[in-house]
Amino acid sequence: MSQLPVIKRDDVVNMRIWRGDASGGSFVDYKIPMSETQTVLDAVTWVQRNVEPGLSYRFACRVGMCGSCAMMVNGRPRWTCRTHVSKVIKNHQIKLEPLRNLPVIKDLVCDLSDFFAKWLKANGRFVPTETRERPVKKISPLSKQRQAANTAIECINCAICYAACDAVEQNPNYLGPAALNRAWTLMNDVRDGGKPERLRAVTGDGGCQCCHSQHGCASHCPNELNPARSIAGLKQAAVTAIFKGEV
After folding, report:
1. The domain containing residue 98 runs over which residues?
2. 98 with 136, same domain?
3. What pLDDT score does 2 carry?
């Protein structure tokens, strides 16, 4: 097993940070003092507070819950608040870029509008079948459908899977792993009444059939979800619906 580098008091890391906007940009090098428990987000914040106050990036919770600090770290999408410098540094250098497959607003900040628009295009909204006057429907936590929904329901829409997906890169119309994962949870929710329309949405242009099953989404998800498995479930449901003449 490879060992992590030993952090010395006077060690520094060279942060290569992409600076620019939608029209273009380039990498700028910054020297950052290292510490033993330092995260990549800590290092970016140090740059913004001490060297480059105009540096743009996103963060909120800082404790691995919101996902807003996601960036490309040495070519891999990561939550930077949960990524320690000591685990990703290579030859005293770390390269940071905005998330892949998304338009850049400025520096490390991406425009997530299309990402969320696809979530809606996949009919990722719960369609109620009961009114508030009716008693809450009891659902067994041991049912097959509830367990299928539970395995995929913890997505927080951080767009890590979207940035990791080669199918998104090759096909801009592809709905993407997060949107399809959400659709799968609703397909397994017995309370939901939007399944026929949702199935048509996820099998249309850019739908689940565009997934190449390379599992980049599953291997990168910080919450250890498996959108590829959800997409496989949608594909199976789509084939069944086609044979029944429902799609």
Report:
1. 12-110
2. no
3. 46
Measured CA to CA, the distance from residue 30 to residue 120 in angstroms comes to 39
Q: Are residues 132 and 230 in the same domain?
A: yes
pLDDT digits (tens, 9 = 90+) for 213-246: 999 999 999 999 999 999 999 999 999 988 888 7
For residues 211 and 167, is the Cβ–Cβ distance under 8 A?
A: yes
Query: What tokens were used for 32?
Result: 């950052």
DSSP secondary structure string for all residues of 33-59: E--TT-BHHHHHHHHHHHT-TT-----
161 close to 177: Cβ distance less than 8 angstroms: yes
User: φ, ψ for residue 176 (rounded to 5)?
Assistant: 95, 160
Closest CA to 149 of 219, 207, 233: 233
Element containing residue 173 per DSSP (H, E): none
Q: What are phi and psi of 32, to 5 degrees?
A: -120, 130
Q: Which residues pair with 27 in a beta bridge?
A: 18
Q: Are residues 117 and 229 in the same domain?
A: yes
23 Cβ contact list (under 8 Å, min separation 6):
none
Whether 49 and 135 map to the same domain: the answer is no
For residues 171 and 174, give the distance between their C-alpha atoms in angstroms, rounded to a whole number.
6
In this predicted structure, what is the pLDDT of residue 97?
98
Beta bridge partners of 30: 15
